[in-house]
Amino acid sequence: MGRFSQIEWTEATWNPWHGCRKVSPGCAHCYMYRDKIRYGQDPSKVVRGKTTFELPLKWKDPRLIFTCSWSDFFIEEADAWRDAAWDVIRSTPHHTYQILTKRPERIVNHLPKVWPLPNVWLGVSVENPRFYWRIAVLCEIPAFVRFLSLEPLLAAMPDLPLDGISWVIVGGESGPQCRPMKSEWVCEIRDRCRDAGVPFFFKQWGGKRKHVTGRRLEGRVWDEMPRSQCSCALGV
After folding, report:
1. Residue 31 to residues 3, 17, 22, 112, 185: CA-CA distances in angstroms?
2. For 93-96, which contacts have Cβ atoms below 8 Å and span 24 or more sequence positions?
3. Using an 8 Å Cβ cutoff, are 152 and 26 in contact?
4. 143: closest CA among 124, 170, 169, 125?
5. What's the pTM value of the predicted model, to 2 decimals?
6. Which helix or strand (DSSP H or E) is residue 12 part of?
7. What percent of the chain has pLDDT over 90?
8. 56 lies in a domain?
9. 8 A C-beta contact, residue 95 and residue 121
10. Of 2-16, 19-33, 129-143, 153-167, which range is least confident?
11. What is the pLDDT of residues 86-119, one digit of tens each?
12. Alpha helices in 70-209, H assignment, sequence order
């Protein structure tokens, strides 16, 4: 992982648009907001990428691509551009797109006519049990791979729903205002994934110095990945 991106669970990032609106507690200390403000830009203004929109068309070698790392693929302000973004995705079947959203309620009405696409992984962010509803909505939508990003993990998730889920990512919050994550929360999720046969990826402990706290959990790095095509996820 990480050939073209510093995000541990992907190889590249693609931002056909950037800017976002905060919708839940996990957004509170968003790195995109922090960086945009540093650049003198309004992070809440969603704008179409001038030079990045068709970037995957230029990448000849297959890449695992985190889509909209600086926005949300299903954000309302991008409705006018999304069909064109789907065209890019359909035109590059050699790439695999990881689309992660906090707005799963908008997915079903904003999919391409031909769906599911074998080169699209569909995921939701869930920071605490209040947002399990996002998982329920995700699992109603056919996809070759459905995944969860539990980052920043803000609470224990003892009853995390995993039926229909192909992959789970867990990570602690980083940055100057980071909120703590308890090791028992992580281990409980890891054990639940192992019991369910779901690949588990531990991204980071986070903290103010995330490169110091690292990625090791109980003496090892957990970097399990899903199969590129998971037929078990196609059922509703």
Report:
1. 21, 16, 12, 30, 23
2. 93/118, 93/119, 94/61, 94/62, 94/119, 95/56, 95/59, 95/62, 95/63, 95/64, 95/65, 95/119, 96/62, 96/63, 96/64, 96/65, 96/120, 96/121, 96/228
3. yes
4. 124
5. 0.94
6. strand 12-14
7. 93
8. yes
9. no
10. 2-16
11. 999 999 999 999 999 999 999 999 999 999 999 9
12. 79-90, 132-138, 183-196
Residue 36 lies in a domain: yes
DSSP lists the bridge partners of residue 122 as 99, 146
Tokens of 156: 């224990």
Residue 233 pLDDT > 50, yes or no?
no
Please indicate, yes or no, if residue 1 is contained in any of the structural domains. Answer: no
For residue 2, being part of any structural domain is answered with no
CA distance 34 to 100: 20
Q: Which of 39, 31, 99, 38 is nearest to 65 (CA)?
A: 99
- Residues 208 and 211: their CA atoms lie apart, in Å, by 9
Give kind and range of the element (H or E) at residue 122. strand 120-125
Distance between first and last Cα of the chain: 30
Q: How many domains does the chain have?
A: 1
Query: Which residue range forms the structural domain that includes residue 217?
Result: 12-233
For 169-186, the pLDDT digits (tens) are 999 999 999 999 999 999
* Mean confidence (pLDDT) of the chain: 94
